[in-house]
Amino acid sequence: MASRVLYLLGCAAPPVLRVADVLGDAQRVGWDVCLGLTPTAAHWLSDQLPELEQQTGHPVRSHYKMPGQPDAWPPATAALVAPATFNTVNQWALGITEKFVVGFAAEAIGKGIPLVTMPCVNAAFARHPQFGTSLETLRRAGVRVLYGEGGFVPNAPGRGRPDAFPWELALAAVEEAAGDAGLPQ
Which domain of life is it from (predicted)? Predict the structure, then answer.
């Protein structure tokens, strides 16, 4: 059976600090996981990057490859953008792709790669008018957005609970999205 490849694309929100556990959870259900991080998330995890690369068997990417350079990752079966910050959600919806994570996610829409995202923002960011517009734009583009009931529910600023981030919902949604696309499960 062909390997199922999950691109896990994490942003600089506190739940990304648990990414090693999430990689293990995804691997236990049969995903070959490639980890991409925004530059700030990569900085937060800099001490863990060698172990994360060993765990996945792939380089952790936080920047675009050079033109003409072969891709170090196998093609994606599905992608999960989580935790997705306010900045990443808005850049993705607006097509602002200077970051590798956002660029891949934006292009994946056009390629038809099943995409799931779970934002991680506080309630003050969530009230910004662009945020709701961006979530709706991504939904209309076919991205499964796990936000609100049945996904991530924002906390008051400074009252985040990174250990309560519902990673299990995100991984279940990726399984469902891959199945809906007719991909092996």
Answer: Bacteria
CA distance linking residue 70 with residue 78, whole number of Å? 20
Q: Cα–Cα distance between 150 and 63 in angstroms, integer? A: 32
The C-alpha atoms of residue 36 and residue 71 are separated, in whole angstroms, by 13
Domains of the chain in sequence order? 4-180 (3.40.50.1950)
Residues linked to residue 119 through DSSP beta bridges, in sequence order? 84
* Angle, alpha carbons 74-13-30 (nearest 5°): 35
Predicted confidence (pLDDT) per residue in 21-42, tens digit: 999 999 999 999 999 999 999 9
- Of 50, 98, 80, 55, give the one whose Cα is nearest residue 145: 80
Residues 6+ apart with CB under 8 A from 154: 121, 122, 123, 125, 126
- The DSSP annotation for 63-92 comes to SPPPTTPPPSSPPPSEEEEEEEPHHHHHHH
